[in-house]
Amino acid sequence: MHKTLCLLSLPVLLLTGCWEKPNDPDPHTGRSDVFETVPQRIPIEPGQIDEASGLADSRTLDGYIWSHNDDGNLIGLISKDGGQIRRYTMGDLMTRDWEDIAVGAGPREGVSYLYLADIGNNNSDAAFDISYIYRVPELTNLNGSFQNNDIERIMYRYPDGPRDAETLLFDPVSKDLFVVSKELGRADIYRLPYPQPTESVIVAELVGSIPSVIMATGGDISYDGLEILVRTYTSVYYWKRKAGETVAQTLTQAPHKTLPYQLEPQGEAVCFDKDAGGYYTISERGTAPSVTLNYYKRK
User: Fold this and answer.
1) How far is it, in rounded angstroms, from Cα 181 to Cα 163?
2) What's the whole-number mean pLDDT along residues 217-241?
């Protein structure tokens, strides 16, 4: 009797999800690694940010997220409800192929910085053997502006020749910067150790490759350095960083899991929100009538 009841109940239990793994917090991060499979979609008005290549949640302007097109010198500030998009000029800065953005600490204590990665090089053209990452303090009010004398330029070369790259990671633990190459056969990881000089060209350190990931288009590290995202056009990969591990040691292991992701027209950007309650993605518009800012909330 009881055995028959259990067998008959099995399909019901499976269908209702009673046997799903509970969303217990990870003992190291204190957070679940389960996220909503259907994102909240925030419409973005066409013509504002049609070639979005990067995302970073502002640490100084609550309720806003930074993004940018992949050329020019304008940066967008999107309200998280999509109701407002502000555009700011980055002084006289003119980028070649601006591909990602990160937020983090820097040389001045207590100041939050934007890191703007002019690192794209679609054909790995040898003529562009120097790549640039621009560092500037975040605005602290919506009516502020970026001044030329506040923008610092970090210049670097790859140790193994020019590379195309679209992923910039800032490590809040070490303040190191990491660039991930965008290639058909591999995703190499390059480190720019802190403090990054701004008056000379440095040689980035090749610290390994990400297994099973190709054509990386964006990434982010959580505010506490314990979780890492790297995305491609079709997937979002997720790592938990163990105590004592460097970013390179974490990323040279297989991803912990692939996170929920609904395909976008040409998805290139991803970031955690500033308290790691979920993650955002956005796409270039391409031939689509419009795009959305997508938020996958942590369960």
Assistant:
1) 6
2) 98
Structure tokens at 210: 């990400």
Helix (H) or strand (E) holding 42: strand 40-44
Position 33: which residue type? D
- CA dist., res. 291 & res. 159, Å (int): 37
| Contacts of 23 by beta carbon, 8 Å cutoff, 6+ apart | 32, 34, 299
Smallest CA-to-CA distance from 180 within 135, 227, 140, 219 is with 219
DSSP class of residue 175?
A: -
Query: Once rounded to an integer, what is the mean pLDDT over residues 226-232?
Result: 98
Q: What stretches of 44-167 show up as alpha helix (H) in DSSP?
A: none
3-state secondary structure of 11: helix
Residues 50-66: tens digit of each pLDDT = 889 999 999 999 999 99
Phi, psi values for residue 8, rounded to 5°: -65, -30
Q: By the 8 A CB rule, do 149 and 134 touch?
A: no
pTM of the complete model: 0.90
Q: Which residue has the tokens 């192929």?
A: 97
Contact 220, 185 (CB under 8 A): no
Q: Residue 21: what pLDDT?
A: 53
Count of C-beta atoms within a 10 Å radius of residue 38? 10
CA dist 217 and 264 (Å) reads 13
Instruction: Look at residue 4 in the predicted model and tell me its pLDDT.
Output: 38
Interval 110-162: pLDDT, tens: 999 999 999 999 888 887 899 999 999 999 999 999 999 999 999 999 999 99
User: Could you say which DSSP state residue 147 is in?
Assistant: -
Query: Residue 20 has what pLDDT?
Result: 39
- 171-197 pLDDT, tens digit each: 999 999 999 999 999 999 999 999 999
Q: How many CA atoms lie within 13 A of 162 on its CB side?
A: 15
Backbone angles phi, psi at 14, to 5 degrees: -65, -40
